[in-house]
Amino acid sequence: MNNLNILFFNNLGENILKFFNPSLKYARSITKNWFLMNPTHFFIALLSYLIFVFISYIYYIKYGSKSRHDKTLAAKIAPAITRSHKSTPLEQMVEKLTPSYNLLQVLFSLIITLLTVYEAKNRRFSLFYNSVDFSKKNIALCCWLFYL
Q1: Can you give the residue ranges of every domain in the chain?
Q2: Cα–Cα 20 to 30 A to 24, which of 4, 13, 80, 99?
């Protein structure tokens, strides 16, 4: 996925970045080849999100509005809730993966915290003014992990 570049999206993304920050040198950035740091990746993620929202809206129009007006549906759902609930295979998979996902999030948070403390100590960060050094990876990695 690192080599996925669509010239139109890259140029559009770089023009947007230059509009807001003309002094930005994207080509020399440490994070240039990281996943989701390429303008093409951003536009693919945005397009995927918009398609998902559109499909969800169509699904809601087709099925959701019918169930709202169906008075018998409430009568069907109420007894089903009181009975013992059988888990679907998807629900079972989610239940099994949730602890792993939570552990992964805790590990990412730990890495972010340790790297931030390490960099703050080495660079003598303060609350008000901090110099920018584009040659270091740790702070960029912390931000990337946070948004990942």
Answers
A1: 1-85, 87-148
A2: 4
